[in-house]
């Protein structure tokens, strides 16, 4: 067993890939949030809500953030544990980065805000984090909400790219996109381990 807190990033990435294959990846008949049918499903929360998975994700995504990042944000619910993990790890690395959670619907009381978390300075550079990208529309909603309040968003980082148009969509929107894993890599590893 590796030490998730101290392992080098290459070892950590392999460990996280194993977790995704073991805990999050399933084959069968599924309907995705986009309405598309799929022969497989990835439930990222099976990994992001594990203590070791969250720590590995926090360390790996923090290493991928542009050096000028002033906040991380994501659309609730899938991104909630991811932005929290990155924020907590950033504090341990003496590079504290606040986390923001973007609601799908405005809060029905109080300030009726779409964005939860600390208020950042106008123009703050925020990176959107996502668990699984299919078409790219979910994370784009987060980008739009963040830009609407004056934050600068140029980058989206995801755990898994399903390779179904999300990357091309982000490129067409002028956004930098990077995923820790492609679905091809997960499926190859899955076949090797079954």
SSE arrangement:
Elements: H1 9-24, E1 25-31, E2 37-42, H2 45-48, H3 51-64, E3 71-75, H4 80-92, E4 99-102, E5 115-116, E6 125-133, H5 137-148, E7 152-161, H6 166-172, E8 176-182, H7 183-193
Parallel strand pairs: 3-4, 3-6, 6-7, 7-8
Antiparallel strand pairs: 1-2, 4-5
Helix pairs in contact: 1-3, 1-7, 3-4
Please state the average pLDDT score: 94
Low-confidence parts, pLDDT < 50 over ≥5 residues?
none
Quick one: CATH class? Answer: Alpha Beta
Give the C-alpha Rg. Answer: 16 Å
Ends: how far apart?
20 Å
What percent of residues adopt helix (DSSP H or I)?
25-40%
Secondary-structure content class: alpha/beta
Structural features, described:
The strands form two sheets. Strands 5-4-3-6-7-8 form a six-stranded mixed sheet, with helices on both faces. It has a two-stranded antiparallel sheet with strand order 1-2. It has helices spanning 9-24, 45-48, 51-64, 80-92, 137-148, 166-172, 183-193; strands spanning 25-31, 37-42, 71-75, 99-102, 115-116, 125-133, 152-161, 176-182. It has a single domain, classed as Rossmann fold (3-Layer(aba) Sandwich), CATH 3.40.50. The longest helix has 16 residues, at 9-24. Helix 4 links the parallel strand 3 (71-75) and strand 4. Helix 1 crosses helix 7 and helix 3 crosses helix 4 (80-92). It starts with 8 loop residues before the first helix and ends with a helix. The chain is built from seven helices and eight strands; from the N terminus they run H-E-E-H-H-E-H-E-E-E-H-E-H-E-H.
Throw out a few tags for this protein.
alpha/beta; PRTase_dom; Or_phspho_trans_dom; single chain; 7 helices; 40% helix; Orotate phosphoribosyltransferase; 194 residues; glycosyltransferase; magnesium ion binding; Rossmann fold
């Amino acid at each position: 067993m590796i030490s998730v807190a101290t392992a080098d990033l290459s070892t950590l990435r392999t460990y996280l890939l194993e977790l995704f294959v073991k805990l999050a990846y399933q084959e069968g008949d599924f309907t995705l949030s986009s309405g598309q049918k799929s022969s497989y499903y990835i439930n990222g929360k099976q990994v992001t809500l594990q203590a070791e998975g969250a720590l590995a994700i926090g360390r790996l995504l923090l290493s991928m953030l542009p050096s000028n990042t002033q906040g991380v944000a994501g659309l609730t619910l899938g991104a909630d544990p991811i932005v929290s993990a990155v924020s907590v790890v950033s504090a341990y690395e003496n590079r504290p980065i606040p986390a923001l959670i973007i609601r799908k619907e405005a809060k029905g009381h109080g300030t009726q805000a779409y964005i939860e978390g600390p208020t950042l300075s106008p123009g703050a550079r925020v990176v959107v984090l996502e668990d699984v990208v299919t078409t790219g529309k979910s994370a784009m909603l987060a980008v739009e909400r963040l830009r609407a309040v004056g934050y600068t968003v140029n980058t989206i980082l995801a755990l898994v790219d399903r390779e179904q148009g999300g990357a091309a969509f982000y490129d067409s929107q002028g956004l930098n996109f990077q995923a820790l894993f492609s679905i091809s890599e997960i499926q190859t590893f899955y076949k090797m381990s079954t």
